[in-house]
Input
Amino acid sequence: MRIATWNVNSIRSRVDRVEGWLERSDCDVLAIQETKANESQFPMLGLNALGYEVAHHGLNQWNGVAILSRVGLADVEIGFPDMPSYGDPPAHEARAIGATCGGVRAWSLYVPNGRALGDPHLDYKLDWLEHLRRAAGGWLSTDPSAQIALMGDWNIAPQDEDVWDMAEFAESTHVSAPERDAFRAIVEAGFTDVARAHTPGPGVYTYWDYQQLSFPKRHGMRIDFVLGSPALSSRVKGAAIDREERKGKGASDHAPVIVELADV
DNA sequence: ATGGTCGGTGGCCGA
Output
């Protein structure tokens, strides 16, 4: 079984790329983020024709998360318990969707960006992550053998080698101590970054800004992760970051992260 | 040559 996560940066502008990638990559479950579509705008039919069921949560042009699965898709859940909101009215809230696919509890997560040190959006990001930790820790306490994959764009670079130049990030989000602490707390709750051992750095990234020729200059960040529960992590046979998908016209600014699971 | 992008939207903002 093969599962993956990909921030597609608009499903409507990227649907040909996503369908082409699914046809090539033999992926059973794909968590996507930043669909930038509401429910009626989501291009469902082509994905269904490829054999994928889709669960999507999108409100407007901001954010939006979905799970595509060809191994069943049941018990869809929008958000996690006590997921905090931000803004009045909250305009950016389509950030988490969960479903059970082929025995795996798959989550597609779009962690708040945080915007800048000192910005209230960073407080919201940290609060959101704390609530995610509580929820995910609770799921493991309830069922320590649960196969859970927390997949998505975490908007955190947990290690110095996860950005091309730490000096460039001295006054930036994504690398700050509170953000890294929040990520580590979820790891300490029992979840493992399962792709890292199979895609060792430095210089291994999942995101490259569209600006300033970041991709050809290899100015990237590793911010997309699959965090596996113990039972899921023990099934991991391999992982890859599909850097090729970042190339060429019409690419998302993120690359897919793929994790290969042993049969049970 | 010291700048160079996308997306969705609506006449800029977010990443």
In short: The helical segments of chain A are 11-25, 44-49, 120-142, 177-188, 230-233. Residues 9-10, 12-13, 34, 36, 60-62, 92, 113, 115, 155, 209-214, 252-253 of chain A lie near DNA strand B (CB under 10 Å from a C1'). Residues 2-261 of chain A form a domain with the Deoxyribonuclease I; Chain A fold (CATH 3.60.10.10). The longest helix of chain A spans residues 120-142.
